[in-house]
Amino acid sequence: MTRKTRTDAEDNRRRILSVARASFAAEGLDLPMREIARRVGLGIATVHRHFPSRADLVTAALTEHVAACRADMKAALDDPDPWRALSGVVRRFAEHRLRDRGLNEALFGSHPAAAAFAADRREQARALRRLVDRARAASVVRDDIGVDDVRICLAAIASYRLTTRPAAGLHRLVDLLLTGLTADHQLPADQRFPAGTVRTPPVRP
Questions:
Q1: Which of 29, 37, 107, 118 has its CA 20 to 30 A from that of 22?
Q2: What's the pLDDT at 197?
Q3: At a CB cut-off of 8 Å and minimum separation 6, what does 94 contact?
Q4: Do 17 and 37 touch, CB atoms closer than 8 A?
């Protein structure tokens, strides 16, 4: 294989993966391979040469998405400002909800492809706990806030219906949720629901 042939093949693979990731993000993981090939402008045989099965293409798209989420979390852990770090993770989770709906729903739902990323989800969960603990130690969140409360916020974002004007509505929801976490917006103790009255399955960025 000549260098030009290898370069063309690499370019084709990148194009296929780029289109597939964007398409899966917008429309879900059930999009047919032939439709991906049509959108890329390549024959289905060329697509199958790079990704022999639909599962291979889905896994590759999810791998890129998970890598982006991992980079987001690393940036947050490296941020010296505890509130900016934690709130930034929540806001970026919302942005993924807008841009990468199909990929997010697959990762945090019951899609079989998500099983390969269980270790990544556990690592993200540990990192989120570190961010929350750091924010509490710095007294930038309410003194009764724990990681489960932040997961409730993420669950609310994940379940937000993306209908008309989705960005404006979701951004407003995020602002309200973050306001509820901050230390200077504490409800008096006698106005709070008892701790532990709400339980949600973990939803991780």
A1: 118
A2: 44
A3: 157, 170, 171, 173, 174
A4: no
